[in-house]
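Lab notebook, design round three. We kept the backbone fixed and only want residue identities now. Task for the bench partner: fill in a sequence for the structure below.
Input C-alpha cells:
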C-alpha cells in the first residue's frame, strides 16, 4: 500500500562535528517516532568525500553515535538497526554529483503515487560561506517539482556577523528558497524549558499577565554561563566572540519569549507577530549598555592551536548587556543579558525578579503564603547548574502555577539545597515531561513544519539591528580569571552598566605598541617577556598583580606582595589605585624588597614614596603594612632591625614564600639592593641582610634566597636609560656577579620581565 506521505531528509555536512554529536541521533529519534508504513522517511548523508571513504566514515559515525537511551531496549535496538541500514551516502562535490543525486531522488519520487504528499528537507550543517552556492545547486538539481509537495532548507548559525552581512546572506538564500521554506536553527528554541515558556504563560495568564510589567518586575536576567573555554574553535570564535555567538541570537530570542505580549493562540503567525512587536521596541545597544571581557588564558590557548595572538586580542569571551524595551509594559525594566566562557559554572536560565513592595514586620522567616519575605521570582531553568533537571521554578509566595500538558510538578523534599537565593522548597517546581536534547526537538519541529521554532528573516534582521551598534570591536575586553573571578561583577548606573571594579573596561583599540609587543620574542633571559608603551605596561603589571591577589585571596584568604624601591614602582602604585578600586587590600600584606638606611621622613626613603603614592590612597589595615625597620630607637640600620624583619617574614609567610615580588633593574644590572660584585651575592643563608658600603646610603634588602622562594616575580625595566642594560643582558653571557638581576630565578615559581618600549627599543 502507498504511504500517505513521504519525506526525503538530506543532511549536508553529514560527517561533520554537529552531525556526529547531535544530528544523526536527532534523525534517528525522528525516524523512531514518526516513520511508519503510512508516513515514510528516507535519509541521505552527503559530503564532499568520495563514496568509498564517505560511506565508511558515515557508517562508523552511525554505529558509534546513534544510541538507544535505555539498555536492553530491544524495540529501540531493532529500530536503530533499521535506521542505520536505511541511511544512504552520496558524494556532492562537482556539479555532476548534484545532477546525479537529483536524478536519483526524482526517480524514487516518480514511483510514488500522485496522492502521496512528498516533502524534501535539506539540512545544511556546513560553513555558512557555502550556503548560497549550496542553495543554488540544490535548487537547480534536487527540488521536487510535481504532485503535492513541500521543501525546507535548514541552516545552522552563524547567519552573518552584522546587519549587512546577514542581509547579504539572506538575499543569497532568498534567491533560491522562499521565506516559508527557510528554517534557520537556533537550538535554544528547542530546549525543553524554552518550548514551555509560552504554554506556561498562556496557562497562567490570569496570575501572570497582571504582574509581568514594569510595575512589578524589578529586572529580568537572561544568563548563559559556561565553565569551559573555546578549545578547538578559536578560528571560529575569533571572528564571532560571545556577543555574536550567543547573545545576539539565543539570549535575545529568550528575551522576546518572556517579554512579548501573549499571542491568543500558539500559531506561527500570531507568535511571530508578537515577537516582532517586542523586538521592534528593544532599544539598540550602545557601549554604555554593554561590557566585555576575555579570560586570561584565551590568547595563549589560541596560540597553542596555531591561531595568532593579534587576531585573538579583541575577542570577547564574556559579555553583559542591559537591554530595555521601550513600550508601556516594560519601560525602564532592565533586561540583563549575560554570557561567558570559563565562568564559575555551566548554567542557563531566565530569572524574573519581582519588586519587593512589602515590608515584613514579624514572622519574617516563615513561609506563610504571601507574607513570606523573600525574593519573589520565576525562573526558567534551561539547563545544567545546580539543578538536576531543567524546570520552571515559581516562588511559593508569588502564585501556585497551573501546568500546561508538557509540564509536570515535582515535589521537592530537600530543604537545604539553595538555588537562586532561596531554599529549593521555597519554590513550586515544574519539569518538562519530555526532556529531549534540543536537537531532537529541532529536527522534530523541522519535520513537522513548526516555523515558530526557527528564525525568520525579519526577526534575524531585527536581532542584528539591535546588536550591530556594539560590534565595532573598538573596545578591548577586560581580562578576567578563569572560574572564580568576581572582577566581572557589574552594576547599573544611570541606565547603563559598568564593572563594579572599573579597571579599563573600555580602552580604545590596541595601540601599535601592543601589536608590536605581541610579535616580540616571548622570552627574555629564559623568562616570559612583555614589551609595550609605559602606560600600557604598568596597567598590565597592575592587572597581573590584581589577578594574582584575587586568586590568592580566594585560595588562602591572604596575599603577600613585596615592592622594590626607587622610582620604578611609582607608576605601578598609581595604576593600582586608579584602575583597581576593588583590590582586596584588606587581605593584602605589603612588604618592602629593600630600604635605604634613612629616616622615614627622608625623600630617599622607599617607604615614604610608597606611603605617599599608595598607602594613603587605599584602605589597608595598619598591621598589613610591613615596613623595613631601618630606624629603631634612635639607631639607623641595626642588626636588630634585620632580625625583626626576618622574624616578621617567618611569622607571616608559609615557607618564607611571597605570593609576588616586584623588582626593578638598575642601569648597572642591580636588583633589590644586590649590587654588582657585592659579597651579598654569595650569601645563601640570610633572608634579609644589610649592604656594606657598595651603595650609599647603606640599605636593608631581601636576599636572593628570599626573592627566589617567591611564587611569582615581576621585574620592571623602564626608560631609555635602561636600554643599554637590556641590550647587554640579552646579548652576552654574563654572570650574576656583574649583573645581579641574573641571580633571580624563582625556584618554584615564575618570572616575567615587563620592559617598556624606551628600554627595549632605546629610541
Ligand atoms: O550556540 C552555542 O551554544 C553552545 C551552548 O549550548 P548548550 O546547549 O550547551 O547550552 C555554546 O557552547 C557555543 O559556544 C555556541 O556556539
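Proposed sequence:
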Amino acid at each position: 500500500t502507498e504511504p500517505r506521505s513521504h519525506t526525503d531528509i538530506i543532511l549536508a555536512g553529514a560527517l561533520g562535528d554537529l552531525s556526529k554529536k547531535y544530528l544523526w541521533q536527532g534523525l534517528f529519534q525522528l525516524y523512531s517516532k514518526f516513520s511508519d508504513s503510512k508516513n515514510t522517511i528516507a535519509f541521505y548523508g552527503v559530503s564532499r568525500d568520495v563514496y568509498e571513504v564517505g560511506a565508511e566514515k558515515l557508517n562508523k559515525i552511525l554505529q558509534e553515535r546513534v544510541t538507544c537511551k535505555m539498555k536492553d531496549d530491544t524495540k529501540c535496538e531493532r529500530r536503530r538497526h533499521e535506521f542505520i541500514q536505511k541511511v544512504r551516502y552520496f558524494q556532492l562535490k562537482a556539479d555532476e554529483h548534484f545532477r546525479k543525486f537529483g536524478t536519483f531522488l526524482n526517480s524514487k519520487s516518480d514511483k510514488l503515487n500522485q496522492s502521496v504528499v512528498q516533502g524534501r528537507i535539506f539540512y545544511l550543517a556546513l560553513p555558512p560561506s557555502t550556503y548560497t552556492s549550496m542553495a543554488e545547486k540544490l535548487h537547480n538539481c534536487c527540488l521536487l517539482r510535481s504532485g503535492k509537495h513541500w521543501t525546507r532548507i535548514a541552516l545552522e548559525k552563524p547567519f552573518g556577523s552584522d546587519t549587512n552581512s546577514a542581509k547579504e546572506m539572506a538575499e543569497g538564500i532568498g534567491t533560491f528558497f522562499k521565506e516559508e521554506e527557510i528554517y534557520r536553527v537556533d537550538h535554544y528554541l528547542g530546549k525543553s524549558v524554552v518550548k514551555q515558556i509560552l504554554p506556561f504563560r498562556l496557562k497562567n495568564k490570569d496570575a501572570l499577565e497582571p504582574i509581568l510589567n514594569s510595575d512589578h518586575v524589578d529586572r529580568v536576567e537572561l544568563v548563559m554561563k559556561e565553565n569551559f573555554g573555546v578549545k578547538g574553535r578559536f578560528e571560529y570564535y575569533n571572528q564571532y566572540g560571545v556577543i555574536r555567538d550567543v547573545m545576539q541570537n539565543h539570549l535575545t530570542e529568550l528575551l522576546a519569549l518572556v517579554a512579548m505580549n501573549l499571542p491568543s493562540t500558539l500559531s506561527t503567525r500570531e507568535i511571530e507577530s508578537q515577537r516582532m512587536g517586542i523586538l521592534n521596541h528593544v532599544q539598540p545597544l550602545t557601549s554604555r549598555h554593554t561590557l566585555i571581557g576575555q579570560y586570561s588564558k584565551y590568547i595563549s590557548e589560541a596560540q597553542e592551536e596555531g591561531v595568532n595572538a593579534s587576531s585573538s586580542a579583541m575577542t570577547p569571551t564574556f559579555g553583559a548587556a542591559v537591554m530595555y524595551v521601550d513600550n508601556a509594559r516594560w519601560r525602564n525594566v532592565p533586561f540583563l543579558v549575560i554570557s561567558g566562557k570559563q565562568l564559575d559554572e555551566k548554567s542557563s536560565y531566565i530569572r524574573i525578579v519581582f519588586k519587593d513592595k512589602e515590608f515584613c514586620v514579624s514572622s519574617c522567616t516563615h513561609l506563610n503564603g504571601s507574607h513570606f519575605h523573600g525574593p519573589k521570582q520565576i525562573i526558567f531553568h534551561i539547563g545544567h547548574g545546580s539543578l538536576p533537571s531543567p524546570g520552571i521554578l515559581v516562588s511559593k509566595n508569588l502564585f501556585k502555577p497551573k501546568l500546561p500538558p508538557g509540564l509536570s510538578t515535582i515535589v521537592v523534599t530537600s530543604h537545604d539545597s539553595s538555588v537562586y537565593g532561596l531554599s529549593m522548597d521555597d519554590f513550586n517546581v515544574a519539569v518538562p515531561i519530555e526532556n529531549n536534547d534540543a536537537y531532537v526537538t529541532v529536527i522534530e519541529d523541522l519535520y513537522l513544519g513548526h516555523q515558530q521554532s526557527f528564525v525568520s528573516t525579519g526577526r534575524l534582521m531585527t536581532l542584528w539591528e539591535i546588536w550591530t551598534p556594539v560590534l565595532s570591536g573598538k573596545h578591548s575586553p577586560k581580562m578576567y580569571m578563569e572560574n572564580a573571578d568576581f572582577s566581572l561583577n557589574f552594576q547599573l548606573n544611570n541606565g547603563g552598566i559598568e564593572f563594579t571594579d572599573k579597571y579599563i573596561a573600555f580602552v580604545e583599540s590596541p595601540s601599535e605598541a601592543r601589536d608590536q609587543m605581541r610579535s616580540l620574542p616571548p622570552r627574555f633571559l629564559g623568562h616570559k617577556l612583555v614589551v609595550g608603551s609605559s602606560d600600557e605596561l604598568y596597567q598590565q603589571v597592575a592587572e597581573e598583580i590584581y589577578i594574582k591577589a584575587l586568586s590568592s585571596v580566594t585560595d588562602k584568604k591572604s596575599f603577600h606582595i613585596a615592592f622594590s624601591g626607587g622610582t620604578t614602582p611609582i607608576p605601578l602604585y598609581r595604576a593600582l589605585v586608579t584602575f583597581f578600586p576593588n583590590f582586596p587590600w584588606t587581605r593584602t600584606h605589603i612588604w618592602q624588597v629593600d630600604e635605604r638606611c634613612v629616616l622615614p621622613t627622608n625623600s630617599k626613603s622607599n617607604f615614604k614614596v610608597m606611603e605617599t603614592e599608595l598607602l594613603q590612597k587605599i584602605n589597608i589595615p595598619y598591621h598589613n603594612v610591613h615596613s623595613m625597620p631601618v630606624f629603631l630607637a634612635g639607631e639607623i640600620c641595626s642588626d636588630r632591625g634585620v632580625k625583626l624583619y626576618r622574624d616578621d617574614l617567618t611569622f607571616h609567610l608559609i615557607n618564607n614564600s611571597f605570593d609576588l615580588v616586584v623588582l626593578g633593574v638598575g642601569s648597572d644590572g642591580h636588583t633589590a639592593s644586590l649590587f654588582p660584585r657585592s659579597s651579598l651575592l654569595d650569601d645563601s643563608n640570610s633572608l634579609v641582610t644589610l649592604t656594606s658600603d657598595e651603595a650609599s646610603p647603606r640599605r636593608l634588602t631581601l636576599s636572593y634566597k628570599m626573592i627566589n622562594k617567591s611564587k611569582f616575580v615581576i621585574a620592571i625595566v623602564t626608560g631609555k636609560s635602561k636600554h643599554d642594560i637590556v641590550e647587554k643582558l640579552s646579548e652576552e653571557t654574563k654572570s650574576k656577579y656583574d649583573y645581579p638581576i641574573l641571580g633571580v630565578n624563582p625556584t618554584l615559581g615564575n618570572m616575567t620581565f615587563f620592559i617598556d618600549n624606551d628600554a627595549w627599543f632605546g629610541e
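Keep this in mind before ordering anything: DSSP finds 22 helices and 34 strands in the chain.
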